[in-house]
Amino acid sequence: MVRRPRRAIGEQVARGRFVGEIIENDLGHLRAGPFEEDAFPSRLHDERVAALLGIALGVSFGVCFLTGLFSHFAQDPLAIGFLSMPASPAWLYRVTQGLHVATGIAAIPLVLVKLWVVYPKLFAWPPVKDPAHALARLSLVPLVAGSIFLLMSGLLNTSRWYPWEFGFREAHFWTAWIVIGSLLIHVGAQIAVVRRTVGRRAKATLPPEPPGDGLSRRGLLVATGAAVGAVTLTTVGQTFRPLKDIALLAPRLPDVGRQGIPVNRTAAGAGVVELIADRPAFRLEVTGRVERDLVFTLEELQALPQHEADLAITCVEGWSASARWGGVRVADLLDMAGAPTGADVVVRSLQTRASFRSSVLNPAHARHPDTLLALRIGGEELHPDHGFPCRLISPNRPGVQQTKWVTRLEVV
Amino acid sequence: MASRVLTILGVAVLAFGVGGLVVNADVTVPGSWGLYVLGGLALHDGLIAPLAMVGGALLARVVPARLRPPVQGGFLVSASLLLVAIPPWTGRGALPGNDSLLPQDYGTNLLIALGVVWALVAVLVAVRAARQPPPPVRASLPAPRGGW
Q1: Distance of CA A192 to CAs A46, A53, A180, Å?
Q2: Would you call A17 exposed, middle or buried from its count of C-beta atoms within 10 A (0-12, 13-18, 19+)?
Q3: Whether B123 contacts chain A with CB within 8 A
Q4: What gap in Å lies between CA A337 and CA B52, rounded to an integer?
Q5: Would you state the pLDDT for residue B127?
Q6: What is the pLDDT, as a whole number, of residue A209?
Q7: A369 three-class SS
Q8: Quick check: B11 and A181 CB within 8 A?
Q9: What ranges in A4-91 are assigned the alpha helix state H?
Q10: pTM, entire model
Q11: Residues near B69 by Cβ (< 8 Å), separated by ≥ 6?
Q12: CA of A254 to nearest chain B CA: how many angstroms apart?
């Protein structure tokens, strides 16, 4: 028997045949398992279901992206004046960051169901039809892999679990751009499907749902909604206090911690236990671009006019808890030292290591009447884990910038 | 037209993200990043999705068609709760001396949440079972196909 040697794929392409055709002719006999035509018989692998889930995901990823950008630039301010973080409304960052984490958690079931619905397309036959088809398939890799990465890394961050070597915030931030970019490409490629399958007019022209047993398409969407509700209700109490009693899976509870407030970095963890042990030795300096440098002991700070403010600690990890803080207004200290009104103020901690041992108050925050060097929480002296002898508390600001164990205000 | 604009914009935004990752390689550590990005994809496409497919096929053999929808929904909700519970449940983020971090018993709490879900599923199944069964399927309909 004489076998004709099979032509190389490159040679066949050169003769003007499509890759898909070549695969079908030469490898069609290998088509089996999930590549089989009827491998996924469920009526739920459907374009309209995929489009509806896609719209829900587009909204949730959009919310996550915008609130994420807001949080990123709250921590790393852009050097553009009118974009600097305002001091009011005081609740703004609390709402945006709570929304960021809650929306990300809600997107987990949405992504899982969406990927399940379109999973058969992973085994499309032939795998590659032509260069355009190859490119379209390839562009799904950053979208799917990036989305899984964002949701997974964000979820692990809420539990402060970091098994990787990269910096979470930077990797999460840059991957978000990759995902939003590939999402735009994906929407561009699929917008025709959405137009064809979603909306009242489209619905009238669609063929009716084929008969079958198990969940209907509507049933799948209802079940997905139930899953979104379940993961939201069991976690959102970490920032939304009325639901704290059912926050079964929340990594934090807004009333569990020293003096009823959660703690991120303890005094021992920050290495300041010995530095704050000697009460009489504590000094707070106000220095930098001022008319006169000031130095206070703890007793002297306590003797200054005291003010109270109801403000929340809002952590980037998604929890928040409000408390009544008491202490000295930063604005009063700046006035006593004769600092210029438009100046930024660097707030320095006793901490000798860690990336958040200082923070910057922009003029709006520095001069806000609720911005305090707090000495008390709920009427009690601060616990060392909350920043004894004194800590910064200021409205509309991420928790990592509410510097604890403050020893110096530097006007710059 | 809209599609072309979105594509061009998307490529630009994607390139900006890749650029940021590369320029900040000292903190984004592309090796470790790539491992987790591709690892997550492999974990989903290679394990989670096939498990869901096989689980769905098994369910179709075990649970009568008429009672199946609430059970399928129950598994979907349970899987979502399980995923969200895993990070706190492992306790890997705990820090010594900080009781406010991961303060709950997440294994027990997950069981409570699953208990509520499956109690609801049981109610829905009972309601369906109590209803009159639908008229028998006409013989002209094709038999259900096998496979996933």
Answers
A1: 15, 15, 19
A2: middle
A3: no
A4: 66
A5: 95
A6: 87
A7: coil
A8: yes
A9: 9-14, 19-27, 47-75
A10: 0.92
A11: A214, A215, A216, A219, A223, B128
A12: 9
